[in-house]
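Record minuted for completeness.

…
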Amino acid sequence: MATLRELKGRIGSVASSEKITGAMKMISSAKMHKAEQAIRRLLPFRQQVETVIGNLLSADAEFSSPLLEARDVRTVGIVVLGSDDGLCGAYNINIFKRLLARMAELRSTLGQDIDIKVYPVGRKIAKAVAKIAGPRLEVVTYEGVDSKSSAAEVKVFVETLRSSFIDGTVDRVDFLYMSFHSVGRQILKAEQFLPVVQETFSANGVKEQSRPYIFEPDADTIFSSVLPLFLLSVMQEVFSENRASEQAARVMAMQSANDNARKLLEQLQLEYNKLRQQSITTELLDILGGQVR
């Protein structure tokens, strides 16, 4: 049976843990709101780019791009986004499990002999993916590309993926990430990035405009310039969604830890009070017993 001193030490330790988890929850919440604001800032840019593409599609002009080229798939690249830090519950575990399922789906659809290149973004997910590398599964990491990458670093990463697709290093690029909806709701998404398909566009899609437009320079040049901007906007949005989802998962994990600490603190406080009351009662009985003698 624990002594009063031991219980008091446990209570102090649990109380400190409760304060720490509460503070971490507040910090993660602030970071999550910052990532949410970044997503909102990106949406107008993406919508504007999609509007330009819609105008080009409605024009009576010919244009093409190697980024639209669908070819026989021998090598698939998968960009999987996780976190650099821990304490976010089962966030990275769920992403890793979905990655395994996604690879099985691709092999089932495209053939068991396809090669897969995994581009992990985030130290935790990179560590997990490194364990499954094999003859037909290559893990490719880029210095400076992580879950906290700046816009400039994301741009370089997109250009690298685009070059790998154009030169035939990979025939298709997908990305797997956690889409942010709210603090308590994040949804795993697996979508195609290259070649660009209709599903790559936003929920509203690219709307063709019926109004006449005069393009300067020609439509093909504009399309070749706008499409890379569209891919950049998509990837920046994915990085921002991943950051927001990570912090949301951490908020929920810290909330759960805080609740558990509070429950344990209440139990320890109750046990401490019972033991203290028992000690006082014993002392009173000893005093009364001495007076009687």
